[in-house]
Amino acid sequence: MDFERTVTVQAPATTANLGPGFDCLGMALDFCNTVELGLAEETRVEVAGFGADTLPTDGRNLILRSAGKLAAFVGRSVPGWRLKQHNEIHLARGMGSSSSAIVAGLVAANALLEAGLDDRQILDIAVEIEGHPDNVAPALLGGLTVCCTDDEGLGVARFEPPPGLLACLAIPDYEVSTEAARKVMPQTISHADGVFNTCHAAAVLAALVSGDMELLGQAMKDRLHEPYRAPLVKGMQQCTRAAREAGAYATALSGSGPTVIAFAGDNAEQVLSAMLAALRAEGVTCEGRVAKLSAEGARLPDAVV
Question: Has this prediction a pTM greater than 0.85?
Answer without folding.
Answer: yes
